[in-house]
């Protein structure tokens, strides 16, 4: 039976909405700690409009909670030590180490493989020290850690709907990767409930057949589940409870609290997951190498004799370093905000820092409802491009991944999904997404600094070019014939604004004098951020990657908050592309509508109004999703604000307001302006 608000809106719940409310309760996750509002940032979107510095302070202040958790972990590192020993043993015995995640944690997994593990071993193998090691370690050691994510390499660019909602997909990827008994598996899910990640770790358990009490102790040294929500909340979710109660799986809980933006686990949750996973790998490598190399030889590859706790506690210095840069970050944030407000675009240009740049740009899309990175087949829609100094798409993927792009095999996955997924909605969505996971996807995305890209999508007047240079790349910037300098010259020639983010051991003032005195193209108005970090005791460059990630996360979140793609500290522009995000969107509609109609300002103007129900909000959400799909401008139209405006306007006028009328209000007035008008006295 339709409720009062649905009658007023002349809506009936769709079959998919009825199914979601009745049968998908395990994906209605608004009670999770990571979904709650953080008290430090509750007024972020209102404050940051007039005070960018204060907004950045609010965002960065939440990172203190990562430091607190790390300090606790450093005092009780038993489970981390167990993981370190397992990885070290796998290295020596020639076993594989697999890190599997979905979305942000999937990108984390691939970053550890491609940006930390592979470069370290390739550099070591090119040195004279390899002569002392080659008889004791696998000759292809750089291939022995695999970072995998739900949907494969293609999912780095954007989410593939429906795949993360199936445990089957994680299990199939385990089979597809030819994972064997004895390999060490890390399944990482910020929420602690991602179905595909749970399917992966459950698949790892199946490798061992019938598990005896004797086997259990050995198996738990091979299987790890890393997550960021309290056990007591996760145990209410059946699929999570099964993992948490299984004594053959080692659980490492890295919960820090609510996120700076409610539900946006790309920030604090993924930061601590990346750091702790990176330290496990770093400490394991040290444990292996110290058997064969002298103290002086270890120092040549970045290792000193330090404890695991000391390595963990290194994190605490990173947020402090970034907080001291806030006066330099704020003008950059304002410049990028202005770029998009004026309907211009940006291009991020990097080589060594390509992976953290790519991650931040890709994750803006689902978090803030932006068009994902463009394919070569469409005119430019994405606000941001990412370029790296190579001449074609294949080489660009190789710079990013430190290997060739690897697509999944769609027929293999489709055959299993068609037979084994009974839910018709999930089956249909997953089968559609599996059309986009194959090897053919490689050629659709071109991140190269190529003639083709320069001619098709050059930086134009009013656009923003952002260069990220690391160490020796700063010297390249000083060289007039380098690719970095060519990009700078192209931006200047075409009238684009420029920002530089430099990661170096040099001090800021010294470097600024060097750059401005040697590069004629640099103006006083060009924004330069210098992130000074020592290379000492950072053999995998983990700490630098984390610092860059945190700067970019804070900056891009601040840009989107200034552009009204956040309300308070809620992700109102979330893209409802999977069951979890549909649940989050539903709860945002419910909570914002009911909060507004309960306020005295509303009651005084429009009278007492009954709160809407969860099922109402979900029915309205599925209705708007159909409407948005029909629009030509589908990429960035936010479903949640449309729903909130339509409900409030219908209640206010006491007559049905159509989606078309609602869209007109949103486009011409904006979400925050509408709310202010409705509640103003």
Identify the notable features of this structure and list them briefly.
681 residues; alpha/beta; Rossmann fold; five-stranded parallel beta sheet; 33 helices; 53% helix
Write the layout of secondary structure elements.
Elements: H1 4-9, H2 15-23, H3 44-50, H4 52-61, H5 64-75, H6 78-93, E1 97-101, H7 104-125, H8 130-133, E2 145-149, H9 167-176, E3 184-189, H10 195-206, H11 213-219, E4 223-227, H12 231-234, H13 238-244, E5 250-253, H14 268-289, H15 295-300, H16 308-313, H17 317-323, H18 326-341, E6 346-350, H19 354-368, E7 384-387, H20 393-401, H21 410-420, H22 424-433, H23 451-456, E8 464-470, H24 472-478, H25 483-494, E9 497-504, H26 508-518, E10 527-532, H27 542-562, H28 579-597, H29 600-606, H30 614-630, H31 639-653, H32 659-669, H33 671-679
Parallel strand pairs: 1-2, 1-3, 3-4, 4-5, 6-7, 6-8, 8-9, 9-10
Helix pairs in contact: 2-30, 3-4, 4-18, 4-27, 6-14, 7-14, 7-19, 9-10, 14-27, 17-27, 18-27, 19-27, 28-30, 28-31, 30-31, 31-32
Kindly describe this structure.
With 681 residues, this protein is α/β, with parallel strands linked by helices. 53% of the residues lie in helices and 8% in strands. A 5-stranded parallel β-sheet has the order 2-1-3-4-5, with helices on both faces. It has a 5-stranded parallel β-sheet with strand order 7-6-8-9-10, sandwiched between helices. Strand 9 (497-504), helix 26 (508-518) and strand 10 form a beta-alpha-beta unit. The chain is globular and about 80 Å long. It starts with a helix and ends with a helix. The mean pLDDT is 95.
């Amino acid at each position: 039976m339709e409720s009062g608000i649905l009658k007023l809106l002349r809506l009936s719940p769709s079959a998919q909405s009825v199914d979601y409310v009745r049968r998908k309760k395990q994906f209605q996750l608004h009670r999770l700690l990571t979904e709650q509002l953080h008290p430090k940032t509750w007024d972020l979107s209102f404050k940051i409009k007039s005070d960018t510095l204060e907004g950045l302070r609010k965002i960065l202040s939440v990172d203190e909670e990562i430091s607190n958790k790390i300090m606790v972990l450093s005092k009780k590192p038993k489970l981390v030590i167990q993981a370190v020993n397992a990885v070290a043993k796998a290295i020596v015995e020639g076993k594989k180490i697999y890190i599997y995640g979905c979305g942000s944690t999937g990108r984390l997994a691939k970053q550890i493989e491609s940006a930390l593990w592979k470069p370290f071993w390739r550099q070591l193998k090119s040195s004279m020290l390899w002569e002392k090691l080659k008889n004791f370690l696998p000759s292809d050691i750089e291939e022995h850690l695999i970072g995998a994510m739900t949907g494969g390499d293609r999912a780095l660019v954007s989410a593939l709907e429906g795949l993360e909602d199936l445990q089957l997909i994680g299990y199939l990827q385990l089979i597809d990767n030819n994972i064997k008994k004895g390999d060490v598996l890390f399944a990482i899910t910020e929420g602690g409930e991602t179905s595909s990640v749970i399917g992966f770790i459950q698949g790892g358990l199946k490798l061992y057949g019938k598990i005896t009490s004797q086997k259990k102790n050995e198996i738990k040294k091979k299987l790890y589940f890393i997550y960021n929500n309290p056990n007591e909340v996760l145990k209410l979710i059946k699929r999570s409870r099964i993992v948490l109660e299984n004594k053959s799986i080692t659980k490492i809980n890295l919960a820090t609290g609510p996120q700076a933006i409610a539900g946006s686990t790309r920030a604090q949750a993924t930061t601590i997951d990346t750091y702790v996973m990176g330290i496990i790998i770093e400490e394991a490598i040290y444990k292996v190498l110290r058997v064969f190399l002298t103290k002086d030889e270890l120092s040549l590859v970045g290792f000193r004799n330090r404890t695991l706790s000391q390595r963990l506690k290194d994190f605490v210095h990173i947020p402090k370093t970034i907080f001291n840069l806030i006066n330099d970050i704020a003008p950059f944030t304002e410049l990028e905000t202005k770029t998009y407000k004026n309907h211009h675009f940006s291009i991020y240009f990097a080589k060594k820092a390509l992976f953290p740049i790519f991650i931040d740009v890709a994750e803006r899309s689902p978090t803030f409802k932006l068009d994902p990175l463009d394919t070569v087949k469409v005119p430019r829609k994405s606000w941001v491009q990412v370029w790296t100094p190579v001449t074609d798409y294949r080489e660009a993927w190789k710079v990013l991944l430190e290997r060739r792009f690897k697509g999944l095999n769609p027929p293999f996955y489709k055959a299993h999904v068609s037979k084994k997924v009974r839910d018709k909605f999930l089956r249909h969505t997953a089968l559609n997404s599996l059309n986009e996971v194959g090897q053919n996807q490689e050629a659709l995305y071109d991140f190269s600094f190529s003639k083709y890209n320069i001619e098709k999508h050059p930086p134009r007047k009013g656009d923003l070019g952002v260069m990220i240079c690391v160490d020796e790349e700063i010297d390249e910037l000083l060289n007039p014939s380098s690719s970095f300098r060519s990009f700078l010259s192209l931006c200047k020639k075409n009238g684009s604004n420029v920002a530089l983010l430099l990661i170096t051991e040099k001090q800021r003032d010294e470097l600024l004098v060097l750059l401005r005195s040697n590069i004629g193209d640099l103006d006083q108005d060009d924004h330069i951020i210098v992130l000074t970090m020592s290379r000492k005791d950072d053999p995998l460059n983990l700490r630098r990657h984390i610092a860059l990630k945190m700067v970019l996360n804070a900056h891009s979140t601040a840009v989107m908050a200034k552009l009204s793609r956040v309300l308070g500290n809620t992700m109102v522009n979330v893209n409802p592309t999977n069951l979890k995000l549909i649940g989050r969107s539903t709860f945002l509609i419910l909570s914002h509508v009911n909060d507004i109609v309960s306020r005295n300002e509303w009651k005084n103007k429009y009278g007492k109004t009954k709160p809407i129900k969860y099922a109402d909000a979900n029915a309205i959400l599925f209705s708007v999703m159909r409407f948005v799909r029909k629009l030509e401008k589908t990429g960035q139209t936010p479903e949640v604000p449309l729903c909130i405006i339509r409900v409030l306007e219908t209640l206010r006028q006491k007559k049905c307001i159509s989606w078309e009328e609602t869209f007109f209000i949103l486009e011409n007035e904006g979400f925050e302006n509408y709310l202010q008008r409705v509640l103003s006295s």
